[in-house]
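User: Could you check the structure of this?
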Amino acid sequence: MINRLRRNSLFFKIMCTVVVAVICTSIAISGVIINISRDIFEKSYIDSQQKVVERVYEKLYDFHKQSVETINSINSNRAVRLYFTEEDLSYNESFNNIYNMKTQIKSLFKENDYSYDLLIAGLDGKTYLKEGLLYKEAADLLQMDISKNSLEQKDTILYQFLDKGFTSTTQNEPVVIITKALTFNNGEPYGILYLMLKEKEFQSIYDYFSPGLNNVYILNKVNKVISTNNDISLGTYIESFEEDIKNLAINNELSKIYEIQGNVNFIERLPDSNLSLCGITNINKAIREIYDIKKIVSICFFITLITLIIIYFIVKQVTRPLYMLIEKMSNLRANKFNGYVEINEVSVISEIEELATTYNFMIKDINSHIKELVKTQKEKRKAEIYALQMQINPHYVFNTLSSIKCLIWQGDKDRSIEVLDSFILLLRNTISKTDEFITIKDEIDNLKHYVLINNTRYGDRIDVQYFIMPNCYDYLVPKLILQPFIENSFFHGFPSREEGRIEIFIKEDKDNIDIRIIDNGVGIESDKLENLKNVKKTSSKGLSGIGINNVNDRIKLIYGNDYGIEIKSELGKGTEIIISLPKQLAK
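Assistant: Sure, the predicted structure tokens are below.
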């Protein structure tokens, strides 16, 4: 700091000049800017808000128009009507109708700009959901107020609101629901159509408004807030705009903007949809924010301009080394990170010399970070590619269902129910649950389901035994970490359909978990053992297609190179898989 304050230093000369210029200029122009800006702000701000309201109105109108077109297309769709009303269709007719319905709906939504969830509920209990899972029974759904409102006003498209949706994609979030009763030509309803959009996504229609300055409300026909950037008011009834909305309707007017108690209120009606766009802007707060930004920018501009003129002649002689440094720095724009500065070329001024030294260190650090980032990104992409392979094999699903069919055909009801339950639980735990980590207990349960299905398909020739220490059940492991090895033992350890045994041991080992999978199969030749470690995909007969090397890579990417798998095998005596993981309990 002492070196910086020396009279001969660049820092001292520039700071003295800038401070004097800033103080003098600020005193001179601050009063002028404040007085002028306050006079013109209110009118210009109201005009700008009017333009924003008009833009939001157009976007809201476009949203409603697309929603109406979607609803009308579905309401007039013959395949939809047949699906919910005709019960005497043959199997082929029913299959073709469902296929046509799904294809036409999919095509319809391809042309839509908004990511709706579509649900159709028939009065006979049938439902159709475009994608995801439905978490309400049709009977319960039809008893909800939103459904009753649609049936009572069957000729009207209603905009309604729920705190939580009832599908897998909306269950934990507020949703805007557009409902319309589906009717026969005689006007009798046969179902209800629901278009669901997350309230947060609906907000994109009016995201032109600044959340800190504007409270925006979208009201439906009964003045209930179906969307707002003020979460406290979401789902409530706002009566303060009710009288103005009624007067606009009586006078056949669409919009109104006015000032009241230091606020600017605006109302915009959308008659076709029975929606109203309402908002409140705090003028005083807006003015304060303008002064915090525009005033500072304007003053700094004039101060900088005047200061540059004053200090130009002073700095010109002392900044030559700085320009040399800038020339080197400009090479960074061309991604040239090898342009080090020669210190002896800029040593005329101590500050520039210090800056050049720091710049050289920075270039060195940047090069180091870039190399590390490239390495990290490669590993990340590698992990993402492997994650794509973690999918249920369709052949496995087909073969399992075929086995269940055979059990049913043979009349083995209890066995078929047991296998079907295991298959359902296995699919639920591998597909529906997206958690990367599960407890050892859940992993073993999944394994037992998988083994039961395999024994059903190929016979009970392979006995699988589990030896798990009780205190290990609650530890977390990556999902599907054991299944690939059991699958490998089934299909490769016993290739000639001979009887065999697979044993699974899990215990604690200090701060780690020791997992061993041992079979008494045919074993692996030493030259094939290395190839096995590099296999990234298993047989097409398997469940997921996850190779042994996938598992090893996942472990190392998650926990580091100190953990992974080890394979020991001897031809004719069997194979032992050793998996080392750190202890990790669920939070």
